[in-house]
Amino acid sequence: MRASAWGVLFLLIASGLPALVGHSSAHEFPTFPRVRLLTIEPVASDPLARLLAVEVLDPGGHGRVPGAEVTATARHALFGSALRTGPVRLVPGLEPGTYRGWLVFPGGGSWELTISVQGKYV
Q1: 102 and 88 in contact (C-beta within 8 Å)?
Q2: Per-position b or e across 11-47, b if 16+ CB within 10 A of its CB
Q3: Which of 29, 50, 83, 110 is 20 to 30 Å apart from 72, CA to CA?
């Protein structure tokens, strides 16, 4: 390739580079709600049951999110998916943006809790 052809090729690449960089920096990531575990209390009648209370905040953490569908599941930390709970829908709590529900574990041990949220602003 001649020197002038290399110069034209370089000019085309250099002129297109800012457009590519500008486009990639404009990418926006999805937003996720912020979920905070408020309480997890034992239930006297069932040693494997727990009463959960969570708070759901908007992605910026500025306000609570009422009216969302909130689901809790858990899986055993050691056995993974081999020992898990079914999904439990949490109901709205006394304060807007809080949700409560009973989760019954199939056995003792350490558990990884997952809270799923679907709603208008999340």
Answers
A1: yes
A2: eeeeeeeeeeeeeeeeeeeeeebbbeeeeeeeeeeee
A3: 29
